[in-house]
Amino acid sequence: MKIRRQGNSLAVTLDQETLDAAKLREGDLVVPTVKAGVVVLTAVELRPRVLDAGRRVISENRRVLDRLRKV
Fold this sequence. Notes:
Elements: E1 3-6, E2 9-12, H1 16-22, E3 29-35, E4 38-44, H2 48-60, H3 62-70
Antiparallel strand pairs: 1-2, 3-4
């Protein structure tokens, strides 16, 4: 695999076999850490309560967020 530029970041593309072995799929969130020079990706599980809180904050601040988006 090769590290490539993607915008202002660098990215590594994982093949389907690796994703399947790690039980990851498109859209999953991961946290990178480095242990003894090895990059480790750990899946992050968002709990429904956290998602609900985020949705509530967004809905309560929809007008402000829409205005910021237009700036």
